[in-house]
Amino acid sequence: MPKHVFRRRFVVALPLVLVVAVSAACSRSAAADPAPAAAAESLTDDGGTSFAAPDATPSAGPTTTPPAQPTTAPPTTKTPGAPPPARPGWVPVDQAKQAADVKAFFARTPRKITNNPVKVPEFNASCTVSHRNSDDPIVAPGLVGASHNHTFMGNTSTNAFSTAKSLYANKKTTCAPAQDHSAYWIPTLLKDGKPVLPSGVTVYYGSRLKDPSKTVPFPFGFRMITGDAKRQTDTPDKQGNHFWCAGIGGETGRTPDGEWPVCAKTANLVRQVTFPDCWDGKHLDSPDHKSHVGPADRDGKCSGKFPVAIPSVSFVIGYPLNTNTTGIKLASGTGYSMHADFFNAWEPAALAQRVRDCVDQGYKCGSDGKF
């Protein structure tokens, strides 16, 4: 298949069509996601470090009868080191476990670089479409059919009731490698009202930072959204949410409304969506599913509110459309409403190995995590 050079700072080989479904513009925030008890098995990498998916089952409370409350409220005091109270929509990460996982991660000895790989910090998951439905477990958890229609890739069980625990427990995925149990989704593309499924999708995990060597894996159960389902017009700078043509001949024109590209017969309609590079290090999710992540600073570093470097996730989605792009739109509206959702359920050891070997060392790996 033809090779293409994609935008941003990723240099990638497009399998020619890629993939998947996106998140709904619903008003509900996600509640805290129970971490998987089923994931308590030890996942050991080839360096001997044990990474187990977290078990956040709360311990039983005290069984003794609490003392009677005083009639006069005591003065408010802060206990040194006490965590701040949880805020609605903010899902806190287990700080003690996260610190231990990060320490173990950087204690890993990266794999020796072989085969003269391309010097691009990335690896990927190669995916096809799993299914469609009108659910969104991040924006509208537990509400069946509450969203516009989504196209899902990866985990075959993804629906309104999906949690990190349920995703991890399901071993069926349409992505390679099989250790990636994550769910990925985008709004369904429609032509004359009928769904057009991506021919395939590549989910890249890379880095656009000046120094990628401090990048850490996503904590288990992490989720985020990029793009805006409510946006129906182009960005003021005209540099935002655009579809384009990949392949010989590229773009040959525009649809009558000017919104969509018309591709040569030897090219295909493509869209790339990219998530932020940096994380606050404190939350698995936020009320808008975006505020816990952010961009790098002017120096290409993660700092300030977002000091933790995470892999920059990017979906490259290809559709089997070229010269016939009139009458297409997204289930969320115009092409400018394109957005994407990521719900992490990787086997922790497999994800850690790829981030340490490929992203941190700055070299390109395949879906198998090898150079």
UniProtKB/TrEMBL annotation:
It comes from the Bacteria. Keywords: Signal. It holds the Pfam family DUF1996. Residues 64-73 have a biased composition (Pro residues). Residues 136-346 form the DUF1996 domain. Residues 52-63 have a biased composition (Low complexity). Residues 40-90 are annotated as: Disordered. Residues 1-32 form the signal peptide. This is DUF1996 domain-containing protein. It comes from Asanoa iriomotensis. The lineage of its organism: Bacteria, Bacillati, Actinomycetota, Actinomycetes, Micromonosporales.
